[in-house]
Amino acid sequence: MMTVETYHVPVLLKESVDGLDIQPDGVYVDVTYGGGGHSREIMRHLGPKGLLFGFDQDEDAERNMGNMGNTPGGPRFIFVRSNFRYVKQWMRYHGISHIDGLLADLGVSSHHFDAAERGFSFRFDAPLDMRMNRRATLTAADVVNNYSEEQLADVLYLYGELRNARQVAAAIVKARQQRPISTTAQLQEAVERLFAREREKKEVTKVFQALRIEVNHEMDALAQMLTAATTLLRPGGRLSVITYHSLEDRMVKNIIRSGRIDGRQQQDFFGHTTCTLRPIGKPIVPSSDELQQNPRSRSAKLRVAEKTV
């Protein structure tokens, strides 16, 4: 049985929770529960009347939950097994109109990368799956074998930011004509020859990233969650988000700067720009000590914002 300690090592733990400026009696949401590291730290700051919701669509996270410190006076923690895109609907379901803070640690947990059978990493030869929610039907193998060459190129370019996306897509199509690509090793074999040896690992990682984002509809879900957060937060409430690649970070930066995913500034009748969030400090990156202890934190960046109106 997996344990909390081995499931996932939280990134920027203190900095992201400090960014929430937790009020003991407040209502908070951790939309990326994972191994519960950030949630447990939030719970340490809550009083008997405080409340925390933890979201995760992965059944492994729910099994790993254990006792989150509920008190005799009532539950202080509520787990919601759902994609965080539905955070606003679930808050309404639980009778919550506004929250005091929302934390998101985006990307893939170390558990997913280390669980060979999930197919997130080419470190293991495993079925090409990549579903964060195993109740979903679309897998990475479905994308690789059924998307047209043009569709594959679009996915690789948009979500993997691969300059040679069309070449990679063509190589995948050529390989699948010989036999279906059903494992991580088969996919790696199909594309690795297109990259210089010194960049091979990094570029293949981008291929896997692109497929993972497509399989889990990550960008659409993130856009919905961030937009919902701007309406759920009460004035003075905090948004604390850790990103791992430029696509995520751009969306978070845009929502903080303009209140919109596309980054377009809104203006009132008099031409004054309006925004519901203001950044708190500059983006935070891991310290050298954290980088040594937790390699996953290498590309992490934390942005914190406060609801103004």
Brief sketch in words of this structure:
By secondary structure, the protein is an alpha/beta fold. 42% of the residues lie in helices and 15% in strands.
Structural features, described:
This protein has 309 residues and is of the alpha/beta class. It has helices spanning 4-7, 13-19, 37-45, 59-63, 87-93, 110-114, 140-146, 149-160, 165-178, 184-191, 200-216, 218-232, 246-258, 288-293; strands at residues 27-30, 51-55, 77-80, 99-105, 233-243, 266-267, 273-274, 277-279, 301-307. It has a 7-stranded mixed β-sheet with strand order 3-2-1-4-5-9-8, sandwiched between helices. β2, α4 and β3 form a beta-alpha-beta unit. The longest helix is centred in the C-terminal third of the chain and has 17 residues, at 200-216. It is globular, with a radius of gyration of 20 Å. It starts with a helix and ends with a strand. 42% of the residues are buried.
Find the structural class using helix and strand composition: alpha/beta
Low-confidence residue ranges: 1-5
What would the principal axes of the Cα set say about the shape?
A: globular
Strand order of the largest sheet: 3-2-1-4-5-9-8
Number of helices: 14
Mean pLDDT: 88
Oligomer: single chain
Largest sheet: 7 strands, mixed
Distance from first to last alpha carbon: 46 Å
Proportion in helices: 40-55%
From the alpha carbons, calculate the radius of gyration and give it in angstroms.
Answer: 20 Å
